Every structure is written in C-alpha cells, then in structure tokens.
Amino acid sequence: MAKSRYEYVKQFELDDSALPGTWMVVRIDGRGFHGFTDMHKFEKPNDLRAIHLMNRAALEVVRNIRDIIIAYGQSDEYSFVLPASSTLYSRRISKITSTIVSLFASNYTMHWAEYFPDTKLLVPPCFDARLVCYPTQKTLRDYLSWRQADCHINNLYNTSFWAIVHSGKTEQEAEERLRGTFSKDKNEILFSDFNINYNTLEAVYRKGSVIIRQETEVKSVSQKSGEEVVRLRRLPAVLHDDIISNEFWKEHPELLVSSQEYE
Amino acid sequence: MAKSRYEYVKQFELDDSALPGTWMVVRIDGRGFHGFTDMHKFEKPNDLRAIHLMNRAALEVVRNIRDIIIAYGQSDEYSFVLPASSTLYSRRISKITSTIVSLFASNYTMHWAEYFPDTKLLVPPCFDARLVCYPTQKTLRDYLSWRQADCHINNLYNTSFWAIVHSGKTEQEAEERLRGTFSKDKNEILFSDFNINYNTLEAVYRKGSVIIRQETEVKSVSQKSGEEVVRLRRLPAVLHDDIISNEFWKEHPELLVSSQEYE
Amino acid sequence: MAKSRYEYVKQFELDDSALPGTWMVVRIDGRGFHGFTDMHKFEKPNDLRAIHLMNRAALEVVRNIRDIIIAYGQSDEYSFVLPASSTLYSRRISKITSTIVSLFASNYTMHWAEYFPDTKLLVPPCFDARLVCYPTQKTLRDYLSWRQADCHINNLYNTSFWAIVHSGKTEQEAEERLRGTFSKDKNEILFSDFNINYNTLEAVYRKGSVIIRQETEVKSVSQKSGEEVVRLRRLPAVLHDDIISNEFWKEHPELLVSSQEYE
Amino acid sequence: MAKSRYEYVKQFELDDSALPGTWMVVRIDGRGFHGFTDMHKFEKPNDLRAIHLMNRAALEVVRNIRDIIIAYGQSDEYSFVLPASSTLYSRRISKITSTIVSLFASNYTMHWAEYFPDTKLLVPPCFDARLVCYPTQKTLRDYLSWRQADCHINNLYNTSFWAIVHSGKTEQEAEERLRGTFSKDKNEILFSDFNINYNTLEAVYRKGSVIIRQETEVKSVSQKSGEEVVRLRRLPAVLHDDIISNEFWKEHPELLVSSQEYE
C-alpha cells in the first residue's frame, strides 16, 4: 500500500512491554459507579442481578482471551490474571489492557437486558483498567488475597450499614453507629440487632466470584450416528471459593504450574 | 476502613504518566473487524450505518471527556486528541486510555440498534487502544494528516476494488487488476470503466470524520416566562473537512492555542 | 559465536527509548559532594580550581559526544543537551545517560591533578545522572533558565554566608542573619557590611558556565610546504553568558535550529 | 530557598522505578574498549593487570553500595546484583545505574597507576550501563550463568586465536582456522598444536571473577590495651568460582535468602 510523507509519526509509538516472566494482572474498575447504581436502582447492600451481569461479562472475556487463567471479581471491579509465561500480544501493556476492558464494557452493555429485563440501561457503563506485574507466585496470590480481603471488609460494612438503614435509621445514623467499629463489633451488631449470622450469608456476597477453567462434560449429538457424545472440555466457570487459603490452590495445581519455568 | 496485611501489593502499581507538555492521542482500533463486518453484512466499500455508529460512539466519548479537543475517525479506528496542557487523570496513560476505549465500546454496543435496526448485534465489538505523545503542534498535525492520508489511500483502493467486484469479477481478479497501480491509475479505472469521478464522491468517505466543539445555538423554553430562549454553547459536531491543509486550522485557531504555553 | 541455553534472559532487557522529537537533557549531580569538598578543602564560597575542573570534564564530554549542542554547569552539577532531532544510540535512555556520566567521572578523576596540583585526590568522585525530555524550544530554554536562576540564588546566598563567616561569625550566626532575607537584602548586606557590589563579581560565579561549539581558528603547519595553515573549526568553548535572556539565543541561532523540523 | 518561575520544568522528570520484588542487575560494559586495549597495549588473550584493575574498581563499588550482594565480571564488563528486597534510592533506575557506573569509572581511573605502573593512561575509560530486572531466583541465576557461559565461550576462542597468532600466523589465518569449530575442536587444537590443556588454565581466565561478602578476620590493635584484637566482619572478596553449578549457591545460602519474602 502506498505510504504518505506523514508516516514518520509512527515512530512516536514507544514500546510498552511488560517485564517477561511476571504475572500480569489487569484490573478493571467501574468509573462513576456510585451514580450508575443509583440511577439504575441497584438493591443494597448487594444486587444479585448486577453481580451476575459482572460475572457474565467477565466470563465472556475469559472465553475470548485464552491466556487468562483466573479472574476474580467483587463490587464493580474484576481482575484478570495472565500467567508469567504468557506472550499475548508480545506482552504489550496497552494492547492487553485495552482489549480486555473494551470487551468487558461491550459485554456488560450487550447482556444488560438479560439480567435487568425490567430496567432500561440509561447510560453506557464505563470502566478504567490498569495492568500490574507480579514477579512471583507468592506476590500474585497476595494480590488476589488483597482483593478478596477487601471484598470481605467492604461487604461486612455494607451489610451492617444497610441493615441499620433498612431498620428505619438514616444513612448518617448508620454511618455514626459503625464509626470505629471492628469486624467483631459489626458481626455482633448484625447478630444482636438483626438476627443475621454473617458467616452463613451466601458465599457470593462474602467471597466474591472466581472464574477458572474447569473440566466440564459437554454433550453433543453426533451428526453421523445420531448418538449422544460426551466429551470433557476445560470451560470457564464461576465459583465463590475462598482463594486466600492454601486449599483452593492445592485443589487447582494447574493454576500456578504455568510459571514454573521461572521459579 | 480496615486494611489487610496484603495491602503491600499495591506498591507494584508503577506510575505511567505521559510526558507533560505533549499532545496525547488515544487511537482505538477495531479488533477482528474483518470478521465482524462480514458477520453483520456491512455494505462494501463503505457502510454508512457503520460510519454513523462509529461517529455516534465517538461523539459520546467527546461529550463525556471534556479535555478532548478534536477527534478523527475513519474505517474501524478513531483518534482522540488531548491538548498538551491537559492534566486529565494526572496524565496517567492506562487510566486515560482505558476510560476512552471502554466508553467507546459500550456506546457502540448501546447505540447499535439505532443505526442497524434490522441487524441483530451477534458478538460484542472489541477495540484495542494506545496512547501516543506528540511533542509539538507540527507533529500532532502530521499525525492527523497521516490518518487522513491513510483514509484517502484505503478508500480509493476499496472504492476501485468493490466497483470491479460489483461489476462481476472475483475478488482475486479485482486484486490483480489493482496490483501496482498508483492513485491516478485507480482514478482512471473508476472514471473510464465505471463512470465514477472519485473526487465528487461524498466527503464522508474520502475524508473520514472530524469531531470538534462548535458554537451551537441551543433553544430552550424558559420555565418562568414560557418564552423561547436561545443560547450559544460549544457542542461537539461531526464534520468531513480536509484537516491536512492549513485552512482548517486557520478556521479553528482555538484548537492549537491550548498548547501555546509550551511553544 | 556459540550460544548458551541461558541466552533467553536477554529478553528481560526492555526498550527504554526517549520520546522522539523531544530535547534530551542529561543532568549529572555530585553525590555526597558536601563531604567531598570538605575533605579536599575547597575554598568557599567558590573554588575556582574546582569550577575549572568541572568545566574541563564537561568539555571532554562535549568533545566526545558530538550530538551535545549545549551544556550548562554550576556548583557540582552539569546539564548536557541533545537536540530533538538526535538519534544517538537510538535515543536509549540508559545508554546515553550512563555514557555521559561515566565519561564525566573518569575525566574529572583523570584531570584532577592538573587543577589541584597540591591536593591529592582522596576518594573517587561519584555523580548520579538522569535524562529528562523537553518537548519544545520554550520548555528547553525554561529548563536552562531554571538552572541558571538556581545558580544565582545559591551563589548570592553563599557569597553572603561566607562573607559573614569570614568576618569572624560562626556558621550558625551567618545562617540566622540570612534567614528570611530577599535578594535585595543580601545585596544590601554585601554592599553595606563588606563593600561588595555583587553585580560586579566575576560572571563565572554569578552565571555559571556554558559550553557551546564556536567557530575557532585552528593553526597547523602543512607537512608538505612547511607553511602555517589556518582553518576554521567548530570547537567547544566555555562561556559565562546569561542564557536566560533572549540575546544569547539570538547570537547563537544554530542552537535551536536543530529541532525546527518538529516545530 | 527562593524559587524561580522556571521551577515548573521539574515536573518533566518522570518516575522510573524498577518493579518491586525483582532482582536488579546493573551491567556495565566498556565503550570502545577494542581501541582502548590496543592503545594501552593490553596483553592477549588476557592481561592480568587489566583484570585486576576491573576487579579493584568493582570491589570499590561493592564496598560503597552496601545493597549489592554479588557482582560478576569478565572481559570489559561487570554485573552488580541488588536483591529483590532492596529499596536503594527508592529503586529509581537512573539513580542506581548512574551512581554505580560513575563510581566504577572514577575508581578505574584513580587506581590505574597501581595496576599499570609503567603505562600512562592516555584516554579516560568509558562504560555504558543498563539495569535489568529479574523476577525470580531462577531467572537471576540464569542471568549470571549466561554471563559466565559467555566468559567461557569467549575465553576458549581467544585463547585458541592468540595461541595461533603467537605461533606466527596472521590474525586472518587464525580466524579462518577457527571458523565453524566447536568447543571440543578448540580444546583439541590447543592440546595437539600448543600442548595447552584448557581445563587446567587458571580459573580467573576461564571463570571470570565473582565478588561476594565473606566473613573475614580483621585484626586491629586496641588503643587502650595495646593488644591485638581480631573481629569477624563481612567484607567483599574476589573469587573465581563456578557460579553456574548448584554447589556455589549451596555454599552461600545467604545470597538468595534476601528475596524469600517474595517467593
């Protein structure tokens, strides 16, 4: 194809490769989601439709980008993990980050009506994203633990806060009631005042959502013989497991094996 | 809010600020759009519905991000320009890039049905994005000229190619016919064989689309007096002007004034 | 040459190119020079031997690295400017920075005895360095003005401080005397108490040192005819001019012409 | 201290921190050392004086920068390793790299006369430097193995090459003789033609030089009692060990322990 004399401006595009041999985490975050949730009347403290929509968008991203080996989401954020050995897009930070965040945003928009059949999408959702490199399995696991600990801290607060509000107090009163309290205090308030045992709440709220690829039976009908055929395929699935403890990682040893060549 | 012992992983997020005093251009590009256009049966060489949808998504981005002073789009790409003086998100590259690309993707998805009322959106669109810094007015203008020259080169080729194909040839035959030809040859083919004067084709195809903020009369009815009120506001509008020549920049001196403090 | 199986580690070397079309400034700074000047009994407020040694080291750097078009030094720092059009070492930041700083350090060490014939060099001098990009002529000039204004501010302070100390006061008393004073106050102290008209002090102290390449007559004797030949060559020379005002730049228009292709 | 209106240019200094939790390796390399060794008539294939001078300069760098835990040198290059846990200069790449390379250059210059008492230093030595991050113990060890394997490959070649040249052949003839040969061929040439058993050559040539801090008995005389006092201190020392094999690392477990918090 012909080239113009302006072609030289291409050289201003600098290389932005991520350090090889490190885990790459792309975390997307809702922008202005406080207003977004108000506008669309999300239920508080948690709106299960919204959680399922976030998980659906993330699931489509994981289906699309094969290198992602685990994703973790809570509230209006989702983290996608690419292994240390990944060479996706030559590890170019902008390319990886923008592809993931735009796929997430378009899926969120496209599938909105399935999860919110009675609520019209009034404004397009917006997410920002960043890519962070973690050099070792330990630092990667600590990253994921950080997000799940954050989920716990926020959800315990929000559950307490909205229990107080739903009981007839103002938001300001709820805030004052919780100021300076520790986890055990909030557990106590929930139990004594609202008869809620926090630890028995559904895991989806307390633990957030984890997506990994799991061996799954896929049934299809043979076009030739008409018989049903069952095959095993690794398909992404949403779990609500504790990913801080060692157990999860022992059950899924394949998650960390990918970076063994570097450690 | 309480903090966990995993908090230390936050320090792995490195600063990625763009050099101050430089123009920032975020260019988004359709990913896998060859398949996307086939799947949704886009008209060739240009599908006006698709162009209008691209422009609508870009317009919404420009409405949302006030710092953008000019945007230019053609084919499945769009460039958004932030002035040298912009301090949007402290000039953090990931934050700016991801916000723009996710807004674009969700707007494209959300407004699809308005522009393709008879075509169901089958897969979510995906765009990648990168941010490039240009140090001076001249290099910025050369960047925009590069993209518009590219539009011209591609559109002349595509117009010729599809004219040949629509006349009954195979795509391979069209390709062979055009191999090694220069602009004047393609103009000649279009004129002699298909009676098309390329230069009289609509500017939207030949020049692509430019978005700038223009003084616009906005009418509203005063709630108090019931009278119609006309105010002037600067609102983004889509043009199909030549942005390579000096004329455009002389007509819109405010576009380059913003970086005067540095030049 | 044979390759080992460890060769793969080379891929961890990431590209660190400076943005094209920007002025590159490498500023070196003495590390631990407070102790260094005490140890070698530098005269206060200024030691002319030390200034000449700094200038000599810088001159050798400029002789060696042809792309440097201007350098500016004061106190224990020196800035070397590469034009926006420079492609030295493909504009790799580490390569440029390390080459300049190591040349400076070895020249400073090697020429020490010429400038300090009676003082043994007790410890090797150490300098750190950084490369900063400036996108336009204006920002580059403002950078150089910043350093020369800094020279003025520090030198006026130091001249006043050491005048007070040399008159018999303690360093603490001198510090207290100067606390909160403005330029005009220090000028007044110098004039009233010590009969020093600051503005008539030698420019080398007040303005620092500038190195540019100047047309110079170079004489040599022809080996053939035995006659003396005079040729004009552009050789680096040390000046003590004011580089903040426009005059200097009008006298040396070639300094800024190099980046014209970008502005 | 007063500030000038040019102060704003400081914001163009961007952050260049190395990724936390990664090993930082600064490798310095002689610039134009081919000419430098010719000019100063270095002995070929190896000049022991030059090796000792390189080691001395490196030793002084290690003494000065406490965070360096191991250094490895061969030919005209030296690598300095900072542990994953190091926070030296907030891990700023330019600061670390320039400090090490300038210290190396000034030490090399300052100590020249001790190692080359009969050879005047004609030009100042120059070194470039780069900092590379390695995410894990394994990649760090592979880096060091890469450099030591390189030392072996080059030294075997050079030893063969100069043996042939010293036997009366031209450099071109030596080059041709060695073209396409493997290690075993060169070993064979050395043994058959020159009666040299390569593997019994001194380790300093075959293995290069390693600097680590070792427990050392330091004797001093008590000023009080006049008695000799012996204390154990960890002081840097030069070894010529094999650092590719596991043995070395088992003998010095403290070298890798520093990054345990991340792995």
UniProtKB/TrEMBL annotation, chains A, B, C, D:
Annotated binding of Mg(2+) 1, by residue: D29, G30, D76
**Which residues are in the Thg1 C-terminal domain?**
138-244
- State the reactions this protein catalyses: a 5'-end ribonucleotide-tRNA(His) + GTP + ATP + H2O = a 5'-end phospho-guanosine-ribonucleotide-tRNA(His) + AMP + 2 diphosphate + H(+)
Query: Which parts of the sequence bind Mg(2+) 2?
Result: D29, D76
Top EC group: transferase
Q: Could you say which EC number(s) this protein's record lists?
A: 2.7.7.79
User: Which GO-annotated molecular functions does the record name?
Assistant: GTP binding; magnesium ion binding; tRNA guanylyltransferase activity
UniProt keywords, alphabetically = GTP-binding, Magnesium, Metal-binding, Nucleotide-binding, Nucleotidyltransferase, Transferase, tRNA processing
Q: Which GO biological-process labels does this protein carry?
A: tRNA modification
Q: Could you say which cofactors this protein requires?
A: Mg(2+)
Q: Which PANTHER family match?
A: TRNA(HIS) GUANYLYLTRANSFERASE-RELATED
What the record says about family reads: Belongs to the tRNA(His) guanylyltransferase family.
Spell out the protein name for this chain: tRNA(His) guanylyltransferase
* Lineage of the organism: Eukaryota, Fungi, Fungi incertae sedis, Mucoromycota, Mucoromycotina
